[in-house]
Amino acid sequence: MSSRPDRTHILTVAVEDYFQVGAFNQAVQLGQWHRFESRVERNTKKALDLLDRNEVKATFFALGWIADESPEVIREIARRGHEIGSKGYWHRSIRQMTPGEFRDDVLRSREALEKAAGKRVLGYRAADDWLNPQDLWALDILAQEGFAYDSSICPMWRNWAHEPWRRTLHRHRAGDREIWEVPLSSMSALGFSFPIAGGNYYRQFPHRLMKAAFRRWNAVESEPFVMYFQVWELDRDQPIISSSSLLTRIRHYRNLGKMGWVLSDYFREARFHSIAQHLGLSDALEPGRAEIVLPARERIRAGFEVVGSSESEAARRAKVTLVVPCYNEELVLPYLANTLSEVERAYADRYQLHFVFVDDKSRDGTYAALERIFGSHPRSTIVGHPTNLGVAQAILTGIRAAQTEIVCSIDCDCTYDPHQIGAMIPLLTDGIDVVTASPYHRDGRVVNVPEWRLFLSRTLSALYRRVFRNKLATYTSCFRVYRKSAWMDVPVRESGFLGVVEMLAVLDRRGSGIVECPAVLEVRMLGRSKMKLLRTILGHIKLFTWFASLRLRSWGGTADGNGKRSGEVRPLRSLPLADRRMTKGKTHG
Fold this sequence. Notes:
CATH class of the largest domain: Alpha Beta
Structural class: alpha/beta
CATH architecture of the largest domain: Alpha-Beta Barrel
Radius of gyration: 29 Å
Distance between the termini: 66 Å
Number of domains: 2
């Protein structure tokens, strides 16, 4: 390692998972955090290894939620000699909280972090949004609650122009108490402040430019340079949250492979240590301050939890099969697994859930991931198509493989929350063969779905209502509850998304009962939709024309969905299954 000057600067690290960052607040809700594959442990280890190699100590600002859900992460940071700071409990802006809620949040976070780390939490950093002059009330509360410092100010543009001394370390007075403020470093030019301290700025701007700004600071400023980065910035393979905007994706994912070598270059040139070290503070717990008791909460990490029960309890519950068609969904499956585990727990007293996963000849590692994640579940069946047959045929394959009368088809990407089966299954009453989820129902809802898609779907529904007996608000949903016995001889010509509509059309012409249940549809969170837009639109036009011609000729019940007279209905197409595997010991029915 090259020689470094005696002067020592400050390094801070944000401990949060890739899906918890503020940029994704509109796409990812707090209640969905458990569904994502957690990568915070491996990313924090990468950060710790990087600092160890460069003999650097830092302050790690962590969420209290992570301390409760993954205490081993916080414990490992402390074990390696780094300081633990608070980033609040949830990843929320202080502007979303009242002063009372803010106080409760920081105290809850501090308690969780101190229990996990066995160290005193001295400092705080806002999780989302830097502090502005109107937010200084938060520093008053932190001082009142005994925090030694805050590091939530990042001078930008002219937000602190009237108090230029707040650009560097200073004391903030709150009544008879004081608290250190440790702002992120910025460059001042022409009366404006420009952030130069790390994170997104290191990834988006040329390294030479940012390094020159650091050297200028080192030459002209007497206070230490305060640098930061997030542990997820070392993870170039993290899943892409496709529901976010293009600008957000650029901001979050661009140049993730750059951060590691950029930080190493800074560490070769200068010394860095934690905020507590710089201020001469001890993070040792006071006697009796906090007993180190690790939370006993369970966390599912890219696995599938089996919810068990006694035989007598299982006999009282209705048996339901969830069919999940999968095509190139390897990255989505951990999210699906966590979601289905939540569904199993939520309905453990009402339903015994069975699962059929149909791999529709994926080109990625979907089949292997299905076996790894779901293969040990005693009520799961994994089926593989020899060729890609489309989502409708995958659903029909799953229905045929099910050994329960009640069968639900759900989307692998969970754009419809599977928890909604609780409202749908009770609607499968006598005379009803299908219950379909309906976001376009007057009581339904869509979240973050593009307007063009809403217009397209509603237009298609308006067209199909003209040729269906059952007048529905939504005909294209893959999220449905079926009565299996009604589907054993249903002929379907179309295989893909068009086949989903045709499935309803065949039963509609037979006089079967079809009802819809108001539901919430959200934009796809991970991965990309498999729908080919232009091809699908043209296909729907062709399908509508076919349905209309059938209605004009013989819609009175004398012909089936293939133009055949009653009594001449073909059985459901027999689909060749090249690879149908069932884990040993699995039971059905």
